[in-house]
Specification:
The complex is a heterotrimer of chains A (about 270), B (about 425) and C (about 575).
Chain A lengths: L1 E7 L7 E2 L5 H4 L4 H5 L2 E4 L2 E4 L4 E5 L8 E5 L6 E2 L9 E4 L15 E4 L15 E4 L22 E4 L15 E4 L3 E3 L9 E4 L3 E3 L9 E4 L11 E11 L2 E12 L8 E6 L10
Chain B lengths: L1 E6 L11 E6 L2 E6 L3 H8 L11 E4 L2 E4 L2 H14 L3 E5 L5 H13 L3 E4 L6 H10 E5 L1 H7 L2 E5 L3 H4 L1 H7 L15 E5 L12 E3 L6 H12 L8 E2 L2 E2 H12 L4 E5 L1 H4 L5 H14 L5 E5 L6 H12 L5 E2 L6 E2 L6 H6 L5 E5 L3 H4 L2 H9 L2 E4 L5 H5 L2 E3 L10 E4 L5 E4 L10 H18 L1
Parallel strand pairs in B: 6-7, 6-18, 9-10, 9-14, 10-11, 14-15, 18-19, 19-20
Antiparallel strand pairs in B: 1-2, 2-3, 4-5, 4-20, 7-16, 12-13, 16-17, 21-22
Chain C lengths: L1 E11 L4 E11 L2 E3 L7 E4 L4 E4 L1 E6 L4 H8 L2 H6 L1 E2 L8 E2 L6 H10 L2 E9 L4 H9 L5 E6 L5 H8 L3 H15 L5 E3 L3 H5 L19 H14 L6 E4 L9 H9 L17 E3 L7 E2 L7 E2 L1 H10 L3 E4 L7 E6 L2 H11 L3 E5 L7 E6 L5 H16 L6 E2 L13 H9 L1 H10 L4 H4 L12 H15 L17 E4 L12 H9 L3 E4 L2 E5 L2 E2 L8 E7 L2 H18 L17 E8 L1
Parallel strand pairs in C: 1-4, 1-5, 6-9, 9-10, 11-12, 12-13, 13-16, 16-20, 25-26
Antiparallel strand pairs in C: 1-2, 2-3, 5-21, 7-8, 14-15, 17-19, 18-19, 21-22, 22-23, 23-24
Helix pairs in contact in C: 5-6, 6-8, 6-18, 10-12, 13-14, 13-17
The chains are: A mainly beta (about 270), B alpha/beta (about 425), C alpha/beta (about 575).
Chain lengths: ~270, ~425, ~575
């Protein structure tokens, strides 16, 4: 594995767009060429080296490249956009759109991420150790075809509308979730280990949501199917007892499933 | 005294075009047909304090300058900023808005209008699930079921009821008596007093109630005996009224666009209206505030492909409210220079956004002294469209009407000011 | 300013020029006999020259078009163009923004495009978008087929009043033709219904689609309009609808064409006929009836059709056929926009994916081509995709290449479309290939003539507007039948386009936007006294039932930067 280390200089207030920071773009380039890559800073272009000290060695093959962003980059957007292979490690926070349109490879963010991590993701693995904002693994505005593959894991808490219009792949949230997880979901698997405030699976037509924590408020448009134990989902056994709901029957032809842990959720089950 | 007829009111999205103005010299001294809010706009063109000369803040004080100096300074701010924001646009005409979009392209700025803080959620919702609307006359002539959700037209759009609901229509010869009015609002209001049915739901539970209503409409049982504080039976009854409508219309306002979930409330409301068309005829109309907020969304869409929050930073249009909205940009401290046209964010934006406005250069193209001009470094006063200048505006449901010029006060219009700034920005960019 | 285009191979059907090497002279925006020695020279050796393209039916400007843009940011994001010197940016694959629309038509060598549906109440919106659509000349067709005044007067059997109202409305909206969409059906949709066939009356008004078509066809000739009635038949998209289509075609037969301007001899223009050529009773037993439709067109001389060719793209459908769009939404489940317009019309918008993997879109693709290939006389058929309904106008070069290359079609049938294309249609049995002359007919000559604009459009004779397309394809050395990909490329990016005698496109790129496009509209006054009476009646209806004031209804002259009235009868 060739490592390329980007040591962030001071991050400007006006954000920078690092869509060029992917193994795919770095592949086959010399260190000098990488330093000179164009990067949008507001409405003008600068060179990557203006914002990062860059060292290391590239490779011809993106799958053999690991990019290490050695520090926090809270004003940097679009890291790993559309990457297909290789690895990116960020030792700190990132701004919006980390791993957007990602097709393969791995991204690990040790800190927090702002909104839209893994937007329209098709494959690969995106892991965020801290918290993330809204719209984790969601679709672009207006599109009814969202995340279709890959795995997103967030160890902290997340905001609203995660897995919006999700179509496939898997998302695991270890922390708590605000409102509307899985809104308009059409497929895939969303596992929430923490609590949810409200509106799990609003307008979902397909896919599966598992909530291991407490759901404060639940939607009336679901149908209660009883209790199910030790769920077998995509080859994974999820232990415990779960209330099972089908919905959201506010939408035509809906057959999405929400599992809510029996422990702590008696208030949302009708019996 | 001169009488000018068929004047178009430059106040709210009803865009009433039957106003009669009484004019003495360059002053409108009275009106007929206008509501009290519209009347007050016409006869108080001077406002608390009306600017007639451009001003620039020097050593903390606003001083009068020539138009050339103000234009040059404004153009310089736009051309030098890395992430300039051009906000407002809802109280001016479409020609000015069109120049604004070109200026944003040239300055690689972000252009956004007041929809961002009012019906922006409606725009996001219609982009996800559609937009089944009708023009006002359809409501007047056909509607037998009228729903007001999260709005209080008696106060905010005073002539909505008189023009469309109380009035007699072609197929509704008895006016109000031929219609069932439903108000959905957590509060009692002057509008809810008129309603045949008032669904007084719990605060922030619009989505929950709509979800239940949609499930019932599709013939499903609902999980709970009470949703959003409304008993199940009442929900069944309300849905029954809706699905038996010959022609229904849902008007909705800020009470639902800004309660918890924002655009998702509108999303599911649109879907309810859509699905109602399996049994009834049903449409909707957003109760839009400023008289030409709709026009901006139209112009910006036909010119750039997107209705608001358009980011030209890279030279090509990008769009993602949440990132490219005015409040996102200000609160995240992304923007480093701002132009405000025909609106008053100083009075309406949250504290955190105002803090950023105070840190960066602000240009205000604005006729009156406002909280925004108090923060501005450059103030350029225009003639007021609809009274002192003409131009196109779009009514809340998209009907375009030409605003009339009633008096001449010899100031440049917004369009002319913006054209001059555009010319100057082009010169600066060419010399870079 | 003088230009001479030398040595090109010219296809100019209206002047019977079929691939002759010929110089074209231009002076002051017009084609002339000769120019001085100072003229700018453009060398077109080994290249094709045609008149600028004329699109008789497209959706590029106005309320529903903009709703199509607004509800589809995901479509805009797919196709974004940045600002360039002298050029505005924009976005949108299926519904490009206005500036992009002008540029893209011009890049393909098209210089005239007609907006096919304008709600009168929203006419100002259409003209505002025209204002921001560079280069191309244009006009818009106001919607008449579900208009209360029209239905009322026709119910009373009063053609004179209908004619007087129509002439007034054309002037008030700055409209060009009488457009009829699902007559009686869109009024039914205002109550959530539809009509079926031409004999099903509109609720309350109690007139049928057939009666509306008949009445307006007669009114059209009483007014001496340049274009015949422009008809979108009832039952669009329904299996089995070809019978309604054939019955509708027959209605105006026998009426005599009476254009004051131009020299059309047709009294019916039927649009996007592909969507109206279906047999069967449902989507399972559905079959193509394009051969029967083509046979009718071949045997009758009162009709011109356009096709509405499916291009197999993800696109955005939009039409004044309100009930059809709701049906489409219930079929594909995608977002639905609608706008019912008081006393006049309605509309709907729904995204649609014409996938070559799917049986019905593949059959629709084949049905469109059947119509093109089975209608024998290219003076009776126009090239359209009903843009963006069956696909965006930017695919015209591809459609032309399908028509010119049986090999291209075979490749599509074998490798890119569902087997239903062969099973449900006769496409695989047809080997006809269009010539360049015929392509110039269906995209230039025929539309210009049927629009009544063939004095100045659609040909390269002396006196014509100097709207000229030059394509980098050499018919003497290249064979469109085998070099179809090259052909498609060449037609997508003209090497030169002249508009009003100025070079606006070079090497496929816009280099100059020239003058604003002309806006054609019909100036017709049918009996001034009667019109006064009608306007009085209209004004009374406005007071009671419209939501705008009569005085604020008509489109002001300010909205037409290059107003170009065309005469109808002035009595």
């Amino acid at each position: 594995m060739s490592e390329i280390i980007l040591k962030p200089k001071e991050q400007p207030l006006v954000p920078i767009e690092a869509n060029n920071v992917t193994p795919d773009v770095f592949a086959g380039k010399t260190l000098e060429e990488i330093k000179n890559l164009g990067i949008w800073h507001g409405n003008r272009q600068d060179r990557l080296s203006k914002f990062f000290d860059i060292e290391g060695e590239s490779s011809e093959n993106p799958s053999e490249i690991k990019i290490i962003i050695d520090g926090s980059v809270p004003k940097t957007k679009w890291i790993g956009k559309a990457m297909t292979a290789g690895e990116i490690l960020v030792k700190g926070d990132v701004n919006m759109y980390v791993g957007a349109d990602m097709k393969g490879g791995k991204i690990l963010v040790e800190g927090n991420a702002a909104s839209w991590p893994g937007q329209d993701m098709q494959g690969g693995e995106l892991t965020i150790m801290g918290n993330a904002g809204d719209y984790v693994g969601s679709a672009y505005r207006g599109d009814w075809r969202g995340m279709s593959g890959g795995l997103i894991t967030v160890h902290g808490n997340v905001g609203n509308e995660i897995a919006e219009y999700m179509l496939g792949g898997k998302m695991v949230i270890k922390g708590n979730v605000s409102i509307m997880p899985g809104v308009h979901m059409n497929g895939g698997l969303l596992i929430i280990e923490g609590n949810v405030v409200a509106r799990v699976g609003g307008e979902m037509k397909g896919g599966t949501i598992v909530v291991k924590g407490i759901i404060d408020e639940f939607l009336a448009g679901f149908k209660y199917l009883g209790i199910e134990r030790d769920l077998n989902l995509e080859g994974e056994i999820i232990e415990g007892a779960y209330h099972k709901f089908k919905g959201d029957l506010a939408t035509k032809g809906a057959s999405g499933i929400v599992y809510a842990a029996v422990a702590g959720n008696s208030h949302i089950a009708p019996y | 005294m001169e009488i000018v007829k068929n004047v178009v009111c430059p106040f709210c999205g009803m865009l009433c075009d039957d106003i009669i103005c009484k004019v003495e010299g360059d002053e409108i001294v009275g009106t007929l047909n206008a509501c009290r809010i519209g009347h007050s706009k016409f006869v108080h063109a001077e406002g608390a304090e009306r600017y007639k000369k451009p001003l620039i803040r020097k050593n903390g004080e606003l001083v009068e300058v020539t138009m050339e100096e103000a234009i040059d300074k404004a153009a310089t701010v736009l051309a030098e900023s890395k992430r300039p924001l051009m906000y407002g646009w809802s109280c001016t005409d479409c020609d000015a808005q069109a120049v604004g979009v070109e200026l944003a392209e040239e300055a690689k700025a972000i252009i956004d209008n007041t929809a961002s803080v009012c019906h922006g959620p409606s725009v996001l919702a219609l982009q996800d699930v559609g937009y089944p609307i009708c023009t006002f006359g359809e409501v007047k002539n056909r509607a037998d079921v009228v729903v007001y959700w999260g709005c209080n037209p008696m106060h905010a759009h005073p002539r909505n009821l008189s023009r469309l609901v109380f009035s007699r229509g072609f197929f509704r010869e008895r006016g109000l008596a031929d219609r069932t009015v439903i108000v959905v609002d957590p509060r009692k209001s002057d509008s809810s007093k008129l309603a045949d049915i008032h669904l007084q739901l719990d605060y922030d539970k619009d989505y929950e109630l709509l979800d239940a209503m949609r499930a019932v409409l599709l013939g499903n049982e609902i999980l709970y005996d009470e949703v959003a504080g409304i008993p199940k039976e009442t929900i069944y009854e309300a849905v029954d009224v809706l699905k038996n409508a010959k022609f229904g219309v849902l008007f909705f306002g800020m009470g639902i666009t800004h309660s918890r979930g924002k655009h998702r409330n509108i999303d599911t409301a649109i879907c309810l209206v859509t699905d109602l068309n399996d049994s009834a005829k049903f449409t909707l109309i957003p109760m839009r505030g400023h008289y030409n907020v709709t026009g901006f969304n139209q112009v910006c869409t036909w010119e750039s492909g997107y209705p608001f929050c358009v980011d030209f930073a890279t030279g090509s249009a990008r769009y993602n409210p949440g990132e490219t909205g005015s409040n996102d940009l200000l609160q995240n401290k992304e923007t480093d220079g701002m132009m405000v046209v025909a609106s008053d964010p100083g009075a309406h934006f949250p504290q955190k956004a105002l803090e950023r406005m105070a840190e960066i250069p602000v240009i205000s193209i604005e006729p009156h002294r406002t909280p925004t001009t108090e923060m501005a470094d450059i103030i350029i006063p225009p003639a007021i469209v609809g009274m002192e200048a003409e131009g196109t505006a779009y009514r809340m449901e998209g009907v375009p009407i030409r605003m009339r010029k009633v008096v001449d006060i010899g100031l440049l219009s917004d369009k002319e000011i913006l054209e001059r700034i555009l010319t100057r920005v082009k010169e600066i960019n060419a010399s870079k | 300013m003088e230009h001479i285009i030398k040595n090109g191979i010219v296809y100019d059907p209206l002047n019977n020029i079929d691939g002759e090497q010929k110089d074209i002279c231009i002076k002051d925006g017009k084609i002339v006999d000769s120019v001085s020695a100072d003229a700018n020279v453009t060398d077109a050796s080994g290249q094709i020259i045609m008149p600028g393209g004329v699109d008789p039916h497209t959706h590029i400007a106005g309320a529903k078009v903009n709703v199509g843009r607004m509800i589809r940011p995901e479509d805009s994001k797919k196709d974004v163009v940045g600002r360039a010197p002298g050029q505005r940016g924009g976005s949108g694959f299926s519904v490009p923004s206005t500036f992009m629309t002008g540029y893209r038509y011009a890049q393909m060598g098209y210089t005239t495009a007609m907006e096919a549906a304008m709600p009168p109440l929203l006419a100002r919106h259409t003209h505002e978008e025209f204002h921001d659509t560079p280069i191309i000349d244009h006009a818009a067709y106001p919607l008449f087929g579900n208009n209360w005044f029209v239905m009322q007067y026709l119910k009373e059997g009063d053609l004179d009043k209908t004619a007087a109202y129509a002439s007034w409305l054309l002037r008030a909206t700055k409209g060009y033709a009488i457009k009829i969409v699902n007559p009686a059906g869109t009024e039914a949709w205002a109550w959530g219904g539809n009509v079926h066939g031409i004999d099903d009356p509109a609720p309350y008004f109690d007139v049928t689609g057939g009666e509306i078509i008949k009445g307006l066809a007669e009114v059209n000739e009483m007014l001496g309009l340049p274009h015949p009635i422009h008809l979108h038949c009832n039952d669009l998209g329904h299996p089995g609808n070809y019978e309604t289509t054939l019955k509708s075609f027959d209605i105006p037969k026998g009426i005599k064409a009476n254009p004051i301007t131009g020299n059309r001899d047709k009294v019916l223009y039927a649009t996007h006929v592909q969507f109206h050529s279906y047999g069967g009773t449902n989507w399972r037993d559905f079959v193509s009836e394009a051969p029967k439709i083509a046979d009718y067109v071949n045997k009758n001389d009162h009709i011109v059709i356009d096709v509405g060719q499916v291009t197999l793209d993800e696109t955005t459908t939009m039409t004044a056929d309100g009930p059809m769009e709701y049906d489409l939404h219930t079929l594909n489940g995608l977002k639905w926009a609608n706008c019912d317009v008081e006393l006049e019309t309605g509309s709907g918008v729904v995204p649609f994916i014409y996938s070559g993997k799917a049986p019905v879109p593949s059959s629709q693709w084949a049905i469109g081509l059947e119509l093109f290939l089975l209608v024998n006389d290219p003076e009776k058929i126009c090239l359209t995709t009903d843009s963006p309904n069956a696909g965006p106008f930017t695919r015209y070069p591809r459609v032309m290449s399908w028509l010119m290359s049986n090999k291209y079609r075979e490749d599509m049938i074998e490798n890119h479309v569902h087997k239903w294309a062969q099973k449900k249609t006769s496409i695989a049995t047809i080997d006809r290939e269009y010539s360049f002359f015929e392509i110039a007919q269906i995209s230039r000559a025929t539309p210009a003539k049927v629009l009544g604009l063939s004095d100045t459009k659609g040909h390269l004779g002396v006196g014509a507007d100097a709207d000229i397309a030059i394509y980098p394809f050499n018919p003497e050395t290249q064979d469109p039948s085998t070099d179809y990909m090259k052909l498609e490329e060449a037609l997508t990016a003209a090497s030169y386009v002249f508009k009003d005698g100025e070079i606006v496109v070079k090497d496929g790129k816009v280099v100059n936007i020239g003058l604003p496009g002309r806006c054609y509209w019909v100036n017709s006054i049918y009996d001034e006294e009667l019109e006064k009476q009608i306007v009085g009646e209209v004004e009374t209806m406005f007071k009671r039932y419209y939501s705008v004031n009569f005085a604020n209804y008509a489109v002001q002259d300010e909205y037409l930067p290059r107003s170009t009235p065309v005469d109808g009868v002035i009595l």
